[in-house]
Structures are given as C-alpha cells and as structure tokens.
Amino acid sequence: MRLSLFLLALLCGAAHADQGPPRADPRLDGVKQIEKNVCVRGGNTAPGAPKNLKLVPQYCTCVAATYWDQVPKDEVEQLLDSGQSKRIDQHKDERMAQAKAACRR
After folding, report:
1. Burial of residue 49, with CB atoms counted within 10 A of its CB: 0-12 exposed, 13-18 middle, 19 or more buried
2. Alpha-carbon distance 32 to 45, whole Å?
3. C-alpha–C-alpha distance, residues 59 and 69, integer Å
4. Alpha carbon of 59 to those of 36, 42, 51: distances in Å?
5. Which of 71, 20, 64 has its CA nearest to residue 38?
6. Which letter does DSSP use for residue 24 in this model?
7. What is d(CA 13, CA 75) in angstroms, rounded to the nearest whole number?
C-alpha cells in the first residue's frame, strides 16, 4: 500500500512538475500533495491546526512543503530509489512538529 501511494505520488509529481515556480525537489510534489490532503481531511481538529476551516488548506500546504523541504537530500534519494527510508520514518514526528511550528507563525 505504501509503495503504491508513493508511486502514485511520483506520477502526480511528474504530471505537475512543469507548473509554477521551481521547488526544492520537484520529484516530491506528489508526496507533498498526499501529505496536504491527509492534513486537510483532518480539518481543524489536529493539534496546532487553525480553528478557522478556511485557513486549514493554506496551513496544510505550508506544513507539507516545509516538512518535505527539510528532509535531507540523501534521505530523499533513498526514498525515491527504494520506495522507503527508515531515517525518514524515524525522524517524521520531530520534523513534522518543526514544520507545524513554522507554519503556525
């Protein structure tokens, strides 16, 4: 399941890679979109999420982008090469907390 979501994310990222300004790593656009969608589905009930539902999509976009932009390049390469990265999994909670804190400001 995880690998199929990852492959879907790569396909979505490839389809949208030529749109908008350049990002840290355009291959992660699909993964960022999935992360954003999960966050938006949580609505304003997640810890740190804005209480105003109109602000949730913007907050979730910020969190997803900030999270994935701070993942080191070698971990991203491992994820893209093998479909998983133990280091990304190990540091997810810490990095996600940092991304949420940055987007609350």
Report:
1. buried
2. 20
3. 15
4. 9, 12, 11
5. 64
6. S
7. 18
Q: Enter the tokens of residue 68.
A: 């994935």
pLDDT tens profile 15-45: 444 444 444 688 899 999 999 999 999 998 8
What is the signed CA dihedral for 57, 7, 100, 20, rounded to 10 degrees?
-60
If phi over 0 gives left and psi between -120 and 50 gives alpha, with beta otherwise, what is residue 85?
Answer: beta
Coil/strand/helix, residue 22:
coil
With tokens 């300004």, the residue in question is 21
Task: Report DSSP letters for 55-105, one per residue.
Answer: GHHHHHHHHHHHHHHTS-HHHHHHHHHHS--HHHHHHHHHHHHHHHHHHH-
Specify the pTM: 0.73
d(CA 20, CA 102): 23
